[in-house]
Amino acid sequence: MTDFPSSIYLPRTKNNKSGVVYTPANDTQLYAEDVSKLDDEVVALEQNLQDKRDRLVQIVVVAPGTVVPTGDGLFTFVVPAGLNEYKIVSAHAGFNVANTAGDLNFDVYNVTNASSIFDGGDSIQIDDTDKTSYTSDDQPVLDDEENEVATGDELRIDSEGEPDDAEGLQIFLTFRKPIT
Fold first, then answer.
1. Which of 5, 47, 115, 161 is deepest in the core (most CB within 10 A)?
2. Do 49 and 32 form a contact (C-beta atoms < 8 A)?
3. Counted domains in the chain
C-alpha cells in the first residue's frame, strides 16, 4: 500500500508565486502554503499509479491446428498472488482458424465464487467467419459484482456453442487494480 502524507506539515516548505497572497478561507484555490512534503507525495503517487497498470493475461486454451471442442472446462486458470484484488476489465477471444458454422460464445466462470464474470448472457462472442471477438457485433459485458478475483481463484473457460471448424483458441483477460 502506498503511504501518502496524511496532513499538511509545518514548517511549510514551498513559497507562493510572487504576487499571490495566501487566503486560508479560499478552499477552492491551491496555494504553495498548502503543499508540503511534495517530494514524498510525488513518490507515493508514482508508486500508486505503478500499481494500477493493466495486466494482460493470454491463455492458450486450444493449441493451433486443433479443433476447438464444446462444453465446460476447456481450460482452468488459477489466479496468482500478483493479481489479488484485481478486476477483470476486458475479456476477448481469438481463433487461429475461423469458424464457419455460426457465432460462438465463451464464458469465463469463477469456480471459486460459483459465478460467471459476465453480466447475464453477455459473454465473449466470436461472430461467424471472424477470428476474434474484437470485431463482434455483441461485445462482452462484465458483471461489476463478479469480476474481482483473489489469489487462488479458479477461472474456468467454457465453450457455449457447437464449433465446426474453428482451430486454436486463445482467451485474453485484462486485469486492473481498482484505485483505492
1. 161
2. no
3. 2
What span, in angstroms and rounded, lies between the C-alpha atoms of 102 and 66? 18
Is the pLDDT reported for residue 79 higher than 60? yes
Tally of residues, the chain:
180
Instruction: Tell whether 28 and 91 lie within a shared domain.
Output: no
Whole domain around residue 151: which residue ranges?
A: 55-176
Q: Is 158 helix (H, G, I), strand (E, B) or coil?
A: strand
First to last CA, the chain: 10
Give dist(CA 109, CA 90) in Å, integer. 14
pTM of the entire predicted model: 0.72
Task: Find cell 455460426 and name the residue.
Answer: 102
